[in-house]
Write a structure and sequence with these properties.
Length: 89
């Protein structure tokens, strides 16, 4: 599956999600990754500021793209929201 994650990422108003768009050849999919996932699997300190959360997502784009692809291949409901369990095991 050919997927590209948008470089335009935003922090949700409550700071719990980093939101982004996954672009596929035929469509775009709204996605997000939880603060918990970033703290557990992307080496973000607990309570980190928004800039650090966004940086972690940019640095982990490849891993995030793999997880989004897996969710889409399983035909999971959209928007795709990744949490810590998606990166475990």
């Amino acid at each position: 599956m050919d997927i590209n994650l948008s470089a335009a990422i935003t922090l949700s108003p409550d700071g719990k999600l980093v939101q982004f768009v996954a672009a596929l050849p035929e469509r775009s999919v709204q996605c997000a990754i939880s603060r918990e996932a970033r703290e557990c699997h992307f080496w973000v300190p607990s309570g980190a500021a928004g800039a650090r959360l966004l940086k972690a997502c940019l640095e982990g784009r490849q891993r995030i793209a793999v997880m989004v692809t897996r969710r889409l291949m399983r035909k999971e409901p959209e928007p795709i929201v990744l949490n810590a369990k998606h990166f475990s095991g």
